[in-house]
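Help! Submission page says 'invalid entity' but I think these are all valid:
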Amino acid sequence: MKPTLLKIEGLHTSYGRIPMLLDVTLDIHEKNVCCVLGANGAGKSTLVKAILGMVKADKGKMYLKDTDITDWPSHKRVAGGIQVASAGTGTFPKMTVERNLKLGAYNLLHAARDSKVLEERLEEVYESFPVLKDRLQQKAGTLSGGERTMLSIARAVINKPDLLIMDEPSLGLAPIVVDEVFRIVRRLNQESNMSIMLVEQNATKALAVSHYGYVIQKGQIIFQGEPDAIRESALLDNPVM
Ligand SMILES: Nc1ncnc2c1ncn2[C@@H]1O[C@H](COP(=O)(O)OP(=O)(O)OP(=O)(O)O)[C@@H](O)[C@H]1O
Ligand SMILES: [Mg+2]
C-alpha cells in the first residue's frame, strides 16, 4: 500500500454548542484520489475546513506525512503542501486571471523568490488550462462558472501541492464541463502524482476517478471502501446520500 499522506484520527468538531463532525477517521494515501461523498449538510465542507485549520478540532488528531498538524494554523498547512480548490472561494473577482494565478503562487514565490520558476509554472498551467491562457487579462469575476472552476484549480496546482482538496468542483456546471473537470482530476493524479481529496455529490463521476472513498452522513463516516464496494453498498441509491 502507498504511504499515508494525510491521517485523521477520531476528529470531532462543533459549531458553537452544536456538534458537527463526530469521530471522523480517514486516511489519504500518497498518489491516490480519495473521494468524500455525502448529501447537503453532511459535513463535507466542515471536514475540508478542519483539514485547512479553519475549523478547530475539539478532539482528535491530524497528521501530514507523520507530522502532527492538529494545532497548526492554516498558513502553515498550506506551506506544508495542502491546497484547496473550490469554485466559490479563493479567486479575487476584481483581479485579472493572470494576477489571480500569480497571487495563487504565493507559496512558490515565498520558497523560490525566483521569477523564472514562476514563469515556468505559469506556462505549465496555461498548457493544462488553455481556456485561461485566452483570458489572462479578463477579470476573474466575469469568467463563466466553468472558467472560474478552472481558475480555482489552476491557482491551487500552480504550487504543486502534495494534497489538492477539491470541494464540489462539479457544482453547477454543464455536463461537458463536469467531464472536463474530472479529466483534469485524473490527469493531475496520473501525470503529477498529486494526491487529491475529491469532495462531491456527484458520486458516480467521483467514484470513476477515485481509488478509495468515504461516505459521510450527519457528520459521521458511515461507509468506506474501494469504488466497487461503495457502488455495491447501494448507499448511492439512498436519498439521504
Ligand atoms: N459557520 C457555521 N455555523 C453554524 N453552522 C454551520 C456553519 N457552517 C456550517 N454549518 C452547518 O453545519 C452543517 C454541515 O455543513 P457543511 O457545509 O459541512 O455541509 P456540506 O456537506 O459541505 O454540504 P453541501 O453539500 O451543501 O456543501 C450544516 O448543517 C450547516 O448548516
Ligand atoms: Mg459543502
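Support: the input was valid. A stray whitespace character was the problem, and the output above is from the cleaned input. DSSP finds ten helices and twelve strands in the chain.
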